Amino acid sequence: MHRLKAILRKHNLHTVCEEARCPNLSECFGQPTATFMLMGDLCTRACAFCSVSSGRPKKLNPQEPESIAKVVKEMGLAHVVLTSVNRDDLQDGGAAHFAKTIQMIAKSVDSIVIEVLTPDFMGRLESVDTVCDAKPAIFNHNTETVPRLYRTIRPKALYERSLNILKRAKNHPNRPLVKSGLMLGLGEKEEELINVMRDLREAGTDILTLGQYLQPTNEQISVVEYIKQETFDRYAAIGKQLGFKQVFSGPYVRSSYQAELKGREILFPSTYHEIHFEEAFFKG
Questions:
Q1: For residue 35, what are the β-bridge partners?
Q2: DSSP 204
Q3: 246-250 and 113-117 as β-strands: parallel, antiparallel, unpaired?
Q4: What torsion do the CA atoms of 12, 116, 210, 44 make, to the nearest 10 degrees?
Q5: DSSP H or E segment with residue 113
Q6: Which of its termini does the chain have fewer beta carbons within 10 Å around, N or C?
Q7: Exposure b/e, 77-113, CB count within 10 A at least 16 = b
Q8: In whole angstroms, how far apart are CA 3 and each of 25, 29, 43, 129, 276?
Q9: Cβ distance 124 to 158 under 8 Å?
């Protein structure tokens, strides 16, 4: 964990794991694996659930894609996740920067699986095309919560806009796996959640993540309800019935948590099962 942090600091890079105060940080950093946050650590939005600082971002660092590629190679990663703050100040929302980073990593590291977790680009579908043109294996965009709560939780976002982002990625000629996730415990009703799950399937979403919202600091919105594990299990079963290829549902599930295994079962099924056989064997 300390080695990974040292590598990140050396290259002046940010991870969403640290900026968003993820509860799984120590586990992921200990593997080591991390989700790199592109385009700085200041977001142009201020969503009620998020602890990432908001403000006026700096200009893009043109060296960042190359720096991230070097770190990924130094760490020896087989799967990397790239995300970003919202950059509504940029005409393309940062899509070209995403694409350049994907290309630099693919050029530097052979056979790596590259996953992106994107903002909504203010609904610019051509920005989705720009990212998908760079051939990420997995395209993730989180809907975060049910439509009724958007005005409170994501006041600058639109539910239909997020669905359109996912549809566009699914229909791109490069056909990335499409992924989305929600936080639970914000006051959503079960019927509302199931309706969102149906909408996500209709949009072509392959992988669904459902996790418990945990208040990062006192400045973010409070938790309304702590969801029981059996409820998460029931939602996972419903998701499988709706046709998702994978559903990851539990209190500590986050969109990037164990991302390598989430995508590998679909991308490389034989390798995935070999890994899980070994894990089960050594855990007894």
A1: 81
A2: T
A3: unpaired
A4: 60
A5: strand 113-117
A6: C
A7: bebbbbbbbbbbebebbbbbbbbbbbbbbbeebeebb
A8: 14, 9, 27, 36, 26
A9: no
CA distances from 88 to 44, 51, 119, 240, 275 (A): 6, 18, 10, 35, 41
What's the one-letter identity of residue 133?
D
pLDDT (tens digit, 9 = 90+) per residue, 88-133? 999 999 999 999 999 999 999 998 999 999 999 999 999 999 999 9
Cβ pair 225, 185 in contact under 8 A: yes
* Residues in a beta bridge with 179: 140, 207
Token digits for 73? 């190679």
Task: Outline where DSSP puts E strands in 170-264.
Answer: 177-184, 207-212, 246-250
Instruction: Extract the tokens encoding 228.
Output: 């029981």
Edge-to-edge, what's the strand order for the sheet holding 138-140? 14-15, 35-38, 79-84, 113-117, 138-140, 177-184, 207-212, 246-250
Q: What is the mean pLDDT of the chain?
A: 85
Mind listing the pLDDT tens digit for each residue in 17-74?
Answer: 544 454 544 554 445 466 888 998 878 887 776 767 778 889 999 999 999 999 899 8
Full 3-state SS string of 46-68:
CCCCCCCCECCCCCCCCCHHHHH
Across-strand partners of 212?
184
Give me the sign of the Cα torsion angle 189, 192, 196, 198. positive
Phi, psi of 46 (to 5 degrees): -140, 70
pLDDT at position 275, please? Answer: 38
**CA separation for the pair 212, 199 (Å, rounded):** 20
> Is 274 a residue whose pLDDT tops 80?
no
Look at domain 2-283 and name its CATH class. Answer: alpha beta
Which amino acid is located at 107 in the chain?
A: K
